[in-house]
Every structure is written in structure tokens, then in C-alpha cells.
């Protein structure tokens, strides 16, 4: 955790909050982290789901 926080230039506490969803992870953070972990662009979809629950969608009236 400390290594990743150092890599991102943030404190360990801030990184922990990002990792646990208490602070939003930016697109830049996500890009840096995935690159650091060696996750190839074509495999990045493992972090996303195609199914979204009704609670996570907004209905337009």
C-alpha cells in the first residue's frame, strides 16, 4: 500500500481511502495504477461490469 501511495504521490492514508471507496479514484489514478500493475489495456474491462443494478441508474422522466 505504501509503495502505491508513494508512486501516486499521496499519503498511505489517502491511498487507503481511495482503495476503499471513501475518496473517488480519478481516471488518472486508475490509469497509473493499472499501468503500474501491468494490466494491459485489452484486459482493463475486468474492473467493469455490463450489468448495472436499478439502484445505480438514473431514470429520466
User: Strand percentage, roughly?
Assistant: under 5%
Largest sheet: none
Tally of strands: 0
State the helix count.
Answer: 3
Shape: flat
Protein name: HTH cro/C1-type domain-containing protein
Organism: Bacillus sonorensis
Please tell me about this protein's structure:
With 61 residues, the protein is an all-alpha fold. It has one domain (2-44). 41% of the residues lie in helices and 0% in strands. It is built from 3 helices and no strands. Helix 1 (2-8) crosses helix 2 (12-19). The longest helix is centred in the middle third of the chain and has 10 residues, at 27-36. The mean pLDDT is 83.
Essential attributes:
flat, 61 residues, 41% helix, mainly alpha
What's the gist of this structure?
This is HTH cro/C1-type domain-containing protein. The chain is mainly α and 61 residues long. The protein contains 3 helices and no strands.
Amino acid at each position: 500500500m505504501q509503495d502505491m501511495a508513494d508512486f501516486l504521490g499521496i499519503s498511505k492514508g489517502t491511498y487507503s481511502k481511495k482503495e476503499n471507496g471513501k475518496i473517488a479514484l480519478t481516471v488518472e489514478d486508475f490509469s497509473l495504477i493499472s499501468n503500474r500493475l501491468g494490466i494491459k489495456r485489452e484486459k482493463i474491462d475486468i474492473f467493469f461490469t455490463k450489468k448495472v443494478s436499478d439502484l445505480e441508474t438514473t431514470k429520466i422522466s
